[in-house]
Amino acid sequence: MVVKVGMADLNVCASPDSIITMGLGSCIGVILWDPVSKVCGMVHIMLPDSTAISQNTNRAKFADTGIEELLEKVLLSGATRSRLVAKIAGGAQMFSVNTNSPTLRIGERNAEAAKAKLKELNIKLVAEDTGDKYGRTVEFFPATGEYHIRAIGREGKII
Fold first, then answer.
1. Which of 37, 65, 132, 135 makes the best surface tag, with the fewest CB within 10 Å?
2. What is the pLDDT of residues 51-77, one digit of tens each?
3. What is the DSSP letter of 62?
4. Residue 3, SS3 per DSSP
């Protein structure tokens, strides 16, 4: 079965299932994976920091709260904290605008925030495909640890 993750959403699965999210532009698809139990989770984050938003009701929307919530869910699903590794994809600069403005560099800021949160949680980032100027659809296979990345007009890749 293919488990779907929407925008500002998260979910978990285990082998033999896979987990997918579509339409990663400036958003980031963060995977937490336990290679022994074959349990994984994905969060589709839209923004780097929840602290700028009051009354945040969607923890998955932000890098800081979304990765924390994902960690809780994969542990409840049978992953072991000490074995977890992470992979990330997305964080594109989707618009040709003044990239000196931090507000418009949302993809880059999302990638930086995701990496910072993973470091804070002491989860090793083992692979990434971030940046550039194109959107991605990503699918993760917990049986193998392969993160498949597809983009229109580009060859697929696996990280």
1. 132
2. 877 777 899 999 999 999 999 999 999
3. B
4. strand
How many other CB atoms are there within 10 angstroms of residue 10's CB atom?
25
* Residue that has been written with the tokens 């072991």 in this structure: 80
Return the structure tokens found at 141: 């296979």
**Mean pLDDT score across all residues of the chain:** 94
Chain CA centroid to CA 133, Å: 17
40 catalytic per annotation: no
| pLDDT tens, position by position, 89-136 | 999 998 766 556 666 789 999 999 999 999 999 999 999 999 999 999
The full set of domain ranges for the chain reads 2-158
Percent helix, strand and coil across the chain, each rounded to 5? Answer: 25, 35, 40
Given 1.20.1050.10, 3.30.1330.200, 3.30.420.40, 3.40.1190.10, which CATH number is that of 2-158? 3.30.1330.200
Residue 8 has pLDDT above 90, yes or no: yes
* Pair of tokens at residue 30: 């963060």
Instruction: Please report, for residues 50, 80, 108, 139, the alpha-carbon distance to residue 76 in angstroms, rounded to integers and kept in the order given.
Output: 24, 9, 31, 22
